[in-house]
Amino acid sequence: MRLVAVGALLIGVALSFSVINGLAAKDTTPLVDVSWLKPVVCAEGITVLDVRRSTENYRASHLPCAIHTNYYKDGWRTRKQGIPHMMPPTDQLEALIGRLGIKNNTHVVIYGSGTGPFDAAETTSIYLTFKYLGHDSVSILDGGLPAWMAEWSADFDVGLHEITAAEFTAKPRADLLISREGVQNALANKIPIIDVRSNDMFMGINRAWMLSRSGTIPGALNLPMSWLTVNAGLEFRDRKQLKQLFSAAGSPDSGKQIFFCNAGLESSMAWFVAHELLENEQAVLYDGSLAEWTKDESLPLIRHVELN
Length: 308
Fold this sequence. Notes:
The chain is of the alpha/beta class. It is built from 11 helices and 12 strands.
């Protein structure tokens, strides 16, 4: 690994500037690879977001020109009426994104570090946030930081990247999310609902700290988050494999479907796969997920395994 100044990337930037400057949102792909990102990583019009909890690890080594953000501390999600990890108000997200120097015409590329079990989900949750705000120029670096590190000629930066605050204006798309009432209506209309948690939680054997009860929503299918990436890492499986896995879970890969989990984090992975990679525009995410559902004792819940 070698550390270089940003100036060493000027040749690549010069070659790609006109391409990036004129990149239309409709031409943006959900996933980009290292070969695409490497020549444009510091180009004007591109902002690379390094998503991880440790600022010190970011300072030690990150992609050139990448800006650090902490999914849990910077305000990507908030608590509403006692429910954790809910989508924040639009004005708060506009302020957060503006502080990161992101404008409405910026192409945002998000990557995870691969140091935690929810790294991929944190990137898809931020991706969903941009889509929810009406920002289509957003991609995820497939394979994340490990993929970049595996490229022998890829460069790295150290320290903090200076940010110039910008103005970002949202055009929210509320239809990407569904409420508790929407889920209840979907159940009555036999619309598929998919639980993206691990099988032990789906079966009701274990539960996360934010849930009041164990189990899942009656009639839900189980498509664990770990199925969606290679070896549960940061590299997404190809379309053929994803379709096979949806089928194995008994889940359709088209038409109306609702994804949920403990609090909307893991389910953002399945939403990303269904809505963006499999191009199912009718896929939605239940924002409150089971953190909200289990608080209401009147709402049904089933445990597939009842432990004495």
